[in-house]
Specification:
One of its GO terms (cellular component) is synapse. GO terms for molecular function: acetylcholine receptor inhibitor activity. The protein is an alpha+beta fold. The chain has a domain at about 20-105: Ribbon (CD59). It has 3 helices and 6 strands; from the N terminus they run H-E-E-E-E-E-H-E-H. A 4-stranded antiparallel sheet has the order 2-5-4-6, with helices on one face. A hairpin with a 2-residue loop joins strand 4 (about 50-60) and strand 5. Helix 1 (about 5-15) packs antiparallel against helix 3 (about 115-135).
């Protein structure tokens, strides 16, 4: 096998295959007191259409209600900005937030520590790129 072909294959493998964009979000309708952040509420969003997760928190007389879903970035950002004035945290408050990472409409988490693989991958890509340049 020619070294340049091997290097190209490695670069393709390390960088991914250009998969379609799909994220997972929590999804539920009007859950009272339960923020529906458990595995049974996880859904796969529509590929290349629903690119964000949305979270609505409503304060009602009987307690806090939650709605979570997949959303398109345009619809989510319009909704969140339209309800911003009603996001007070008091009775009848409606807060809508948008985010674009997997399961980001779930509970707040501590910031994850990057894995060794995540730290090494950019170095491998650089190494393969340098190999390609040297072989050219």
């Amino acid at each position: 096998v020619h070294p340049a072909l091997l290097a190209i294959f490695l670069l393709f493998f390390l960088c991914g295959k250009g998969d379609a964009l799909q994220i997972q979000c929590y999804q539920c309708e009007e859950m009272k007191q339960n923020d529906c952040s458990t595995p049974e509420y996880i859904v796969n969003c529509t590929v290349n259409v629903q690119d964000m997760c949305q979270k609505e928190v409503l304060v009602k007389p009987d307690g806090i209600h939650y709605r979570k879903s997949c959303a398109s970035s345009g619809a989510c950002l319009i909704a969140s900005s339209g309800y911003q004035q009603f996001c007070t945290g008091k009775l009848n408050s409606v807060c809508i937030t948008c985010c674009n990472t997997p399961l980001c409409n779930g509970p707040k988490k501590k910031r994850p520590i990057p894995s060794t693989a995540a730290l090494i991958r950019p170095l491998l890509i650089l190494l393969v790129t340098l190999m390609l340049l040297l072989l050219a």
